[in-house]
């Protein structure tokens, strides 16, 4: 007997593809193209969800929190019916008005004056790291040596973390982003570390664990002023540690991969270092480190003539939207002459990534230091991806560089 869900969907394009299969996570573009071509809304029968893959509709849904809520969870699990595996994020998994105070506090803490103070410090850290890497070798794994090493050195310092245990940040982020998908083998592989990693991260969010001069201390100070509750403060710190590391690491890796495969664009950056931030945004558009997020329909809502029923989960393909030929010219090319603004790699609307300018500053520091010292970047082997239910992750990026004489 046909299920109610399928009866609702018979007028829709239906796909039995699994967007969380390893082969799709490692190479998502063929599925993205198929979904865009199938229609504005596609029913994914494996998970009983509706999918949006065209830029126009993904952008609109991200901005419309009233009809496409985050409070039911931005993963496949529906928090109205299932208990979350951890207290929900006050940034990602809450809607106005509950979302407003944490967002406002973080926006003030991460405002331009704070970033101006960090620019000189992070530029020095980037120069030191690049000097160290190039002194040791001209062939290396750029993912580990640069894309991973720089954010793990710079960002936890800014938050106010101590030096011990930082190796837990990426495994925790990997676990958290896997949890947005189905309970598949990737989630099962993390299960034995959930308690350990969660306990470590939660311990870092306490007032006592944070230095007095970092973002974390400022969040606790906001709670003292009454801008947040003291119960909210550690959850806001946790949001920084969850979303502020992995996404930047994989965004930087995307940049380095882009330049290794588009040598003319590397020369363009070397000639015009002010393009460093544009480079990062174009890489985020081109590779989309965050590939997907879910929303839940708060009422029967019409998308391009299709009624998505109340309570339905909607899977938004950010990576597909960012390569939609209906929005971008020659979308599969990494191109620094393009204006990448408007991409949805950082989300859109009230839930747009509050730390995106921090990530851009990290990219500016690292790419500027590299451009001064490196004439050419090229691959020396096949890059390796790491499958994750949400992230377009990297495991290795073997490169050779030619340094400035």
Features:
six-stranded mixed beta sheet, 13% strand, 405 residues, 17 helices, alpha+beta, three-stranded antiparallel beta sheet, globular
Q: How does this model look, in words?
A:
With 405 residues, the protein is α+β, with helices and mostly antiparallel strands. It has 17 helices and 13 strands. It has a six-stranded mixed β-sheet with strand order 1-2-3-9-6-4. Strands 5-13-10 form a three-stranded antiparallel β-sheet. Strands 7-8 form a two-stranded antiparallel sheet. Strand 11 (384-387) and strand 12 form a beta hairpin. Helix 15 crosses helix 17. The longest helix is centred in the N-terminal third of the chain and has 25 residues, at 112-136. The radius of gyration is 21 Å and the shape is globular. The protein starts with a helix and ends with a strand. Mean pLDDT is 94; it is low at 5-10.
Helix proportion range:
40-55%
Distance between the termini: 72 Å
How do the strands of the widest beta sheet line up side by side? 1-2-3-9-6-4
Mean pLDDT metric: 94
Work out the radius of gyration. 21 Å
Strand elements, count: 13
Identify the quaternary structure here: single chain
| SS content category | alpha+beta
Q: Largest beta sheet, briefly?
A: 6 strands, mixed
Enumerate how many helices there are, as a single number: 17
Query: How much strand content do the residues show?
Result: 5-15%
Report the principal-axis shape: globular
Unreliable residue stretches: 5-10
Can you write the helix and strand succession as a string?
A: HEHHEEHEHHEHHHHHHHHHEEEEHHEEEE
């Amino acid at each position: 007997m046909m299920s109610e869900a399928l009866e609702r969907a018979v007028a829709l394009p239906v796909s039995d593809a699994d967007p969380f299969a390893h082969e799709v996570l490692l190479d998502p573009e063929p599925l993205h193209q198929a979904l865009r071509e199938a229609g504005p809304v596609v029913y994914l029968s494996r998970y009983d969800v509706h999918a949006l893959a065209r830029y126009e509709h993904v952008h609109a849904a991200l901005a419309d929190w009233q009809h496409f809520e985050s409070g039911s969870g931005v993963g496949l699990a529906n928090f109205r019916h299932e208990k979350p595996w951890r207290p929900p994020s006050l940034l990602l998994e809450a809607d106005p008005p509950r979302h407003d105070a944490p967002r406002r506090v973080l926006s003030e803490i991460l405002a331009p004056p704070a970033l101006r103070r960090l620019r000189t410090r992070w530029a020095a850290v980037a120069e030191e790291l690049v000097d160290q890497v190039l002194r040791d070798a001209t062939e290396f794994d750029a993912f580990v040596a640069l894309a991973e090493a720089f954010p793990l050195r710079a960002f936890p310092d800014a938050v106010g973390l101590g030096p011990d245990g930082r190796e837990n940040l990426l495994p925790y982020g990997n676990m958290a982003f896997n949890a947005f998908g189905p309970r598949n083998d990737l989630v099962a592989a993390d299960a034995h570390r959930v308690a350990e990693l969660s306990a470590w991260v939660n311990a870092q969010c306490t007032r006592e664990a944070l230095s007095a001069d970092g973002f974390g201390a400022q969040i606790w100070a906001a709670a003292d002023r009454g801008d947040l509750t003291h119960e909210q403060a550690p959850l806001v710190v946790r949001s920084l540690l969850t979303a502020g590391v992995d996404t930047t690491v994989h965004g930087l890796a995307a940049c380095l991969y882009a330049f290794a495969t588009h040598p003319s664009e590397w020369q363009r950056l070397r000639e015009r270092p002010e393009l460093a931030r544009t480079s990062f945004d174009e890489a985020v558009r081109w590779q989309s480190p965050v590939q997907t997020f879910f929303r839940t329909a708060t009422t029967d809502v019409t998308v391009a003539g299709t009624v998505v029923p109340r309570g339905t989960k909607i899977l938004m393909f950010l990576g597909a939207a960012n390569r939609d030929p209906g929005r971008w010219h020659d979308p599969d090319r990494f191109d620094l002459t393009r204006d990448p603004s408007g991409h949805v790699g950082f989300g859109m609307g009230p839930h747009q990534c509050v730390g995106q300018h921090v990530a851009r500053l990290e990219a500016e520091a690292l790419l500027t230091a590299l451009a001064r010292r490196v004439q050419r970047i090229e691959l020396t082997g096949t890059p390796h991806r790491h499958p994750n239910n949400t992230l377009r992750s990297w495991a290795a990026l073997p490169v050779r560089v030619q340094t400035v004489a």
